[in-house]
Write a structure and sequence with these properties.
The complex is a heterodimer of chains A (173) and B (173).
Chain A (H helix, E strand, L loop, with lengths): L3 E4 L5 H14 L10 H8 L7 E6 L12 E12 L3 E11 L8 H15 L4 E7 L3 H9 L3 E2 H5 L1 E7 L1 H8 L5
Parallel strand pairs in A: 4-5
Antiparallel strand pairs in A: 1-2, 2-3, 3-4
Helix pairs in contact in A: 1-2
Chain B lengths: L4 E4 L5 H14 L10 H9 L6 E7 L10 E13 L3 E11 L8 H15 L4 E7 L3 H9 L3 E2 H5 L1 E7 H8 L5
Parallel strand pairs in B: 4-5
Antiparallel strand pairs in B: 1-2, 2-3, 3-4
The chains are: A alpha+beta (173), B alpha+beta (173).
């Protein structure tokens, strides 16, 4: 199947928002999605964007039963390692179920890798849920190493109330 | 009690920041993995497109010396994006020199970072910790941090430059 990978434009945010929800459903966490397509527009397409996004689209003759031609996306941003310097972090990679197995996921990820190399990034990082075997296999086949298994890294966060509590005790400006 | 001050890092702090990065890497038994130089830090943090933000903690120097304050701790962070909840503050490195621990400097840094997160409309502050680093895990958990690797099963993966190059030069569709 022919497909095209291109940089997302502001107008694509409705499609991206739709697919974000589809990915959340796949990960069994749909009630955790709080962003709207307006948030995505503001945060990705203002002078200081917080993420970049690539989308995969198919020609009209292959559109979905609901009429969508945008069938996949990769959302990423730049991070920094104090050991190695510039890195790229791929936050989301998603292809609609009916369009899997056609190289679209590989195509999206290859483009993220290309962007990363052009920006002199030394590595790409991502995270995967431990039960998500198809994704684990996909990334490992591309050379990904599990740093949680190998080096014991765990993700931690301060969220909502715990963040506010800490913030209230900060020294005044 | 000791007298200390926390402030935004300036370009003149780069040599001290690199010194502390190496001390933190040594604490994590990974000193030989730091390949970043002062030139990289300067360009990447204080150039046209900063990849990171940094705050430093300093103490007054010895009364008998003529030197200015001494930098004894730092935190490096940047902004990332979660498509479900929007902007996040990501804490990349956080370190206080051993002889200055136990005085509340780390606590104050964390509170200031939390305040920055809330002020800049971030929903959450994320970071990673090695599971062997019990002292740090306890420090964060005491203040309300949740371990997403344990609670939700997230695993961190990396893909190195050689694999990125291989991916990005793959066949085009």
């Amino acid at each position: 199947m022919h497909f095209k990978v291109r940089a997302a434009a502001k107008e694509d945010c409705k499609d991206i928002s739709r697919m974000i929800m589809e990915l959340a459903v796949y990960e069994n966490m749909p009630d955790q999605v709080k962003t709207s397509h307006e948030d995505l527009e503001r945060d990705g397409f203002s002078p200081n964007p917080f993420y970049e996004c690539l989308i995969a689209e198919v020609p009209d003759e292959h559109k979905t039963k609901d009429g969508y031609t945008v069938v996949g996306y990769a959302l990423y941003f730049y991070t920094y390692s104090t050991w190695k310097g510039r890195s790229v972090y791929m936050e989301d990679l998603y292809v609609m179920p009916d369009f899997r197995g056609k190289g679209i996921g590989t195509g999206l990820m290859a483009k993220v890798a290309q962007v990363g190399v052009e920006k002199q990034c030394v590595r790409l990082q991502l995270s995967v849920l431990d039960w998500n075997k198809p994704s684990l296999d996909f990334y490992i086949a591309k050379g990904a190493e599990d740093l949680t298994a190998k080096e014991g890294w765990h993700f931690l966060r301060f969220h909502g109330q715990t963040l506010d509590t800490l913030a209230k005790e900060a020294p005044k400006d | 009690m000791i007298d200390f001050k926390i402030r935004k890092a300036e370009s003149k702090d780069v040599p001290d920041i690199l010194r502390l990065i190496k001390e933190l890497a040594k604490y994590e038994d990974m000193e030989d993995q730091v390949i970043l130089t002062e030139k990289d830090l300067l360009e990447d943090g204080f150039g046209d497109h900063p990849f990171y933000h940094c705050i430093v903690a300093e103490v007054p120097s010895e009364k008998q010396s003529n030197n200015g304050p001494v930098v004894i701790g730092f935190a490096m962070y940047y902004f990332t994006y979660d498509p479900w909840i929007g902007k996040l503050l990501y804490l990349e490195d956080f370190f206080v020199m051993e002889e200055y621990r136990g005085f509340g400097i780390g606590s104050e840094i964390l509170k200031l970072l939390s305040h920055t997160a809330v002020k800049t409309r971030c929903s959450s502050m994320h970071f990673i910790v090695a599971e062997g680093n019990q002292a740090s895990i306890e420090f964060y958990k005491r203040r309300g941090a949740a371990d997403l690797s344990l609670e939700e099963g997230w695993r961190l993966f990396k893909i190195d430059k050689s694999s990125l190059l291989k991916m990005s030069s793959g066949p085009e569709e």
